[in-house]
Amino acid sequence: MSLFVDTLRWFVDPAHYQGSDAIQTRIFEHVELSALAMLLAAAIALPIGLYLGHTGRLAFVAVNVANIGRALPSLALLAFALPLAFALGLGLGFWPTLIALVPLAIPPMLTNAYVGARAVDRDVIESARGMGMGEFEILRRIEIPLALPLVLAGMRTSAVNVVATATLGALVAGGGLGRYIVDGLGLQEYDRLFAGALLVALLAILVEVAFGTFERRATSPGLRTAAATF
Amino acid sequence: MTEGEPLVRWDWVAGHLDEIAQRLLEHVELAAIAVGVGFVIAFGLALLIVRRPRLESPITFVTGTLYTIPSLALFVLLIPYTGLSVLTAEIGLVSYTLLILIRNIVGGIRGVPADVLEAATGMGYTPRQRLWRVEMPLALAVIIAGVRVATISTIGLVTVTALIGQGGFGYFILIGIQRFFSTELIVGAVCSVMLAIGADGLLVLLQHRLTPWTRPA
């Protein structure tokens, strides 16, 4: 049980709230990196997924992106990103981790955006067209709202993955909460190690719960019973 | 990643084939035990859910929470109990397979059409016979689809166990990062991806063998 006492003591030690290794600084670094990776990945994945779903083209690509994404393990992505970032002169830490996180976050969002837009009832789209809506208007006013629960579910999967994988950035001299785990392992300081693992686990669960709540709030009331099961 | 050094030094690869084979074996062993044990546990829990639907939400909540905890954090949280051991790695790896496997086993069994079940009962099948001779074969395609996802993600996660002294191909990635040696990094990453793709291919073949009726004509 003494590890719990040690970890508790670690958390209340004022020294751990000061300087570059302060808990709040590490949390901020972790969230900053994860948020930036999510923004970049969403900016790539959502337009492509929604467009492919709207036109129904390249279904093969949209569905298989998810399978390929699953086969790319996070540590392998980091392994590929490190020489790439180095060749580009971006150095260690933040950039290689970001380069690894973006391709990790794209597949769930792209596939869910595709499936969400594709699953919209064809009759609804026909009626919209009959009412004189243009293609872009159909996408914006019909397909996106109806696909939203699935799109958000994809974002939740991506976000949890990104927060988890951002931890590995500490292996390539990045910041974030992984610092405590990697340093704790290296220095055999088990209170720090355990505290880092607890913080990362809590952050991931928090992200999951926050996205889940947002998903329920953002779902159109008319869809709440049918589509919320994904 | 040193100036003038190629991205992959093939002489290193040629000189380390023995070690690569050894890491392959370790990787396969870690992943196979995890998926095997995970399947047995998931199968039991899935049957429990099918019989007592009230247990579905607590079981999904627990396995879903385990699935959400980042792998590295979960391994680390186990260290005080099981140390830097294979057991720590396996407990973590098994935990991650449960949600996917349970979801697909339950989904597969529930997807069996009600009239087929009625016909089986009408023909005098006992519930046990019905489960093994009607529901299981019909659920098999969905179940194997779950095993595929669990296998691919487990093979990926095995690399992370390098941080707690296991790792298979992950060992090359970790050492490659520490020594700043791109050959080792890339060998580790490429091998683990190829292993995942190869295992997935084998499972597709197995599925075609076991459920020939699902094959498109």
Task: Provide the fold topology.
The complex is a heterodimer of chains A (230) and B (217).
Chain A: H1 2-12, H2 23-55, H3 59-71, H4 74-87, H5 94-118, H6 122-130, H7 135-166, H8 178-187, H9 190-218
Chain B: H1 10-15, H2 17-51, H3 56-68, H4 71-82, H5 86-110, H6 114-122, H7 127-160, H8 170-179, H9 182-210
Describe this structure in words.
The complex is a heterodimer of chains A (230) and B (217). By secondary structure, chain A is mostly helical. Chain A has a single domain (2-10, 37-229), classed as MetI-like fold. Helix content of chain A is 77%, strand content 0%. Chain A contains nine helices and no strands. Chain A has helices at residues 2-12, 23-55, 59-71, 74-87, 94-118, 122-130, 135-166, 178-187, 190-218. Chain B is mainly alpha-helical and 217 residues long. In chain B, α5 (86-110) packs across α7. Chain B is elongated and about 75 Å long. Chain B is built from nine helices and no strands. Chain B is 80% helix and 0% strand. The mean pLDDT of chain B is 89. Chain B has a single domain, classed as MetI-like (MetI-like fold, Orthogonal Bundle). Chain B starts with 9 loop residues before the first helix and ends in a 7-residue tail after the last helix. Chain A binds chain B through residues 3, 67, 70-80, 82-83, 86, 160, 163-165, 167-168, 171-172, 178, 181-182, 184-185, 190, 193-194, 196-198, 200-201, 204-205, 208, and chain B through 1, 7, 65, 68-74, 76-77, 79-80, 149, 152-153, 155-157, 159-160, 162-164, 170, 173-174, 176-177, 182, 185-186, 188-190, 192-193, 196-197, 200.
